[in-house]
Amino acid sequence: MSISLSLVSLEDWTDAPAVHAVAISPLGAGALGFTGRIHAVDASACPGVPAPAELEHRLLELGFVEGATVEIRHQGLFRRDPIAIRVNGATIALRRREACAIQVRPIEPVTRGARR
Fold first, then answer.
1. Which of 16, 29, 55, 104 has CB atoms 3.0–4.6 Å from 43's, for a disulfide?
2. pTM score of the predicted model
């Protein structure tokens, strides 16, 4: 019986750092219970929004700022519209087409009673 051993240098393990890319998506496409962090507010690519600049301004005034945590808490019965979004301790109702202006990165929700 023979045993073959090979040595791997430390350089082979550290050449490429591990990077986990998280997809950015519009909040309006999120499902009930979705939790994320706001990456940007950009209404220019939203279909069906008549005044993108005004929508962006209104969303920023409501607290949808970069870095804020958002969660979709409720949705309407028909066509899942409108949605109730929790942001900075407030619950705000938006149409999904308006919520598409809010670009978010998904995060894992923190369950109550969970220890870190």
1. 55
2. 0.73
